[in-house]
Amino acid sequence: MPCRLKNRCRPLNQREIALNSKICVEMDSSIGQIALHGDGPEKLFSFDGVYYMDSTAEQIYNDIIYPLVENVIEGYNGTVFAYGQTGSGKTYSMQGDEKIPVQKGIIPRTFEHIFEAISTTENTKFLVHASYLEVDFKGPVPPK
């Protein structure tokens, strides 16, 4: 499965709503493009696919992750990489809100998918190895 670059814009959070924050992106899913409006000239970014704020966790999983996990179950390696500045929606997409089943993120859905497939497969042994790494650059650490 080739590498694909997808973008998901999360909805405004409660803090942003309370501050009357404005949405500063326009998306064109037909060409996989995001236009960022803010101070200065408009900036355009292109992706293999874009998902707007009303996209559900289930839609994201089914469109992007499900085929990847199916390949993993067949023995291939798979990686999902979330990138963005603090507060941009990485945790929102990857972990979701497990207390609200429809808002479960990619990680819990992936584990459910893998272990459901394992439980229904006969005469096959599986070795599951998963890792999760979060890198957070909050600035230099002062020397001790």
UniProtKB/TrEMBL annotation:
<keyword id="KW-0547">Nucleotide-binding</keyword>
<protein>
    <submittedName>
        <fullName>Kinesin motor domain-containing protein</fullName>
    </submittedName>
</protein>
<dbReference type="InterPro" id="IPR027640">
    <property type="entry name" value="Kinesin-like_fam"/>
</dbReference>
<comment type="similarity">
    <text>Belongs to the TRAFAC class myosin-kinesin ATPase superfamily. Kinesin family.</text>
</comment>
<dbReference type="InterPro" id="IPR001752">
    <property type="entry name" value="Kinesin_motor_dom"/>
</dbReference>
<keyword id="KW-0493">Microtubule</keyword>
<dbReference type="InterPro" id="IPR036961">
    <property type="entry name" value="Kinesin_motor_dom_sf"/>
</dbReference>
<keyword id="KW-0175">Coiled coil</keyword>
<keyword id="KW-0505">Motor protein</keyword>
<feature type="domain" description="Kinesin motor">
    <location>
        <begin position="2"/>
        <end position="144"/>
    </location>
</feature>
<dbReference type="GO" id="GO:0005874">
    <property type="term" value="C:microtubule"/>
</dbReference>
<dbReference type="GO" id="GO:0003777">
    <property type="term" value="F:microtubule motor activity"/>
</dbReference>
<dbReference type="GO" id="GO:0007018">
    <property type="term" value="P:microtubule-based movement"/>
</dbReference>
<feature type="binding site">
    <location>
        <begin position="84"/>
        <end position="91"/>
    </location>
    <ligand>
        <name>ATP</name>
    </ligand>
</feature>
<keyword id="KW-0206">Cytoskeleton</keyword>
<dbReference type="GO" id="GO:0005524">
    <property type="term" value="F:ATP binding"/>
</dbReference>
<dbReference type="GO" id="GO:0008017">
    <property type="term" value="F:microtubule binding"/>
</dbReference>
<dbReference type="InterPro" id="IPR027417">
    <property type="entry name" value="P-loop_NTPase"/>
</dbReference>
<keyword id="KW-0963">Cytoplasm</keyword>
<dbReference type="Pfam" id="PF00225">
    <property type="entry name" value="Kinesin"/>
</dbReference>
<keyword id="KW-0067">ATP-binding</keyword>
